[in-house]
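Exercise: predict the structure of this protein bound to aspartic acid.
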Amino acid sequence: MKVLKFGGTSVGSPERMKKLLDIIDPSERQIVVLSAVSGTTNNLVEIGQAYLAGDKAKAAVLIKALKDKYEIFIKKLYAKSEYLEQGREVIDYHFGLLTNLSKDLFTNIEEKVVLAQGELISTTLYHVYLKEIGLPSVLLPALDFMKIDEDNEPIVDYITEHITPLLDAHPDINLFITQGYICRNSFGEIDNLRRGGSDYTASLIGAAIRSEEVQIWTDIDGMHNNDPRIVKGTTPIAQLSFDEAAELAYFGAKILHPQSVFPAQKYKIPVRLLNTMDPKAAGTLITNESEKDKIKSIAAKDGIIAIKVQSSRMLLAYGFLRRLFEVFERYKTSIDMITTSEVAVSLTIDDTTHLAEIEKELGAFGTVDIDRDLTIICVVGDFGAEKHGYAARVLDALKHIPIRMISYGGSENNLSVLINTSDKTEALRSLHNRLF
Ligand code: ASP
Ligand code: MG
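Solution:
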């Protein structure tokens, strides 16, 4: 059984929604995971923020504006008045719920209820559409089987246990629809898998049902070997290993939610990235295999801050790095890159929420320097320890650009350099010309 996930733009208009059936083959048993209609989750974020700020009037305006969009949406989606009526009931229900949230205390718990409405609406409207055209399908409520634990980690066994009976209850149905992104947390409350989390849902369901393949349908023909917004002539990567895909997803290639690689990797479920606008294109296949001896792709991540701590106390001392890292742990700030010398450590973060506190605490260890507006350029490929020449080629392509940090050998798949964001375009182009 395959799992197919369609992102926000793939369900972004009534026309697009109808066109999903060009891709979905109703003669095969499958689970279709849908995102919210594009733009909706952003609107829901705004509604939640207005409520949290106590600005009920603003929330009401935003809710009305979003509801108006759906009024138009359903008029184009359904042909028969009976189904238009059902569609209207769906949006009345969900927008009524959003409006009613103004009556009580609004906390982060209610905020997550707000965020969940986008996927609940898109899947229900699509399910009604399938009914209108007479295609049998079952809507699986993700809130009945998607579960995260107290550390926000999804529980694959729980998902298996709870989705299997739902599937078994309908042996004669081929098409199952469900919501991406949303789940329940350890308290049983409505929660989510973070922005872009529908990919993660698809991968988790794929793992939970030991799917033959997970397909992530977006609006680009797979992962490209460089950023197509910046470099001309990028090409899709035909094949990637899970490790390579994880590095790329994390360092820039916005096409895949980084965590979504891991469940598929653990249960060896192939993941295919495909293009709704060009369904025949080969896309990118992610499996356990890696094409050997090859630089696969270049990605960039902006908004990076480098922190350097210089201390003579580090010399010949042990426990220094642990104490240093504990500062970041206390402020729940994750570190991307690190380099060390005998008397200094440099590391990077991208979350500046607690930078001031972190800087202050690090001051106890030595002199702290902070550099901003940096970009990590990440070159991904198969660079085993026995390989040679790759680092030289990368650095040669960057020889005219000032480099702040280099990280190599952290994994066999990644060589990262930290540069000024103002040099990013030149770095990506130069690497592209020299490496591909
Ligand atoms: N709708 C959610 C978001 O916009 C999840 C997703 O689309 O993957 O982040
Ligand atoms: Mg996405």
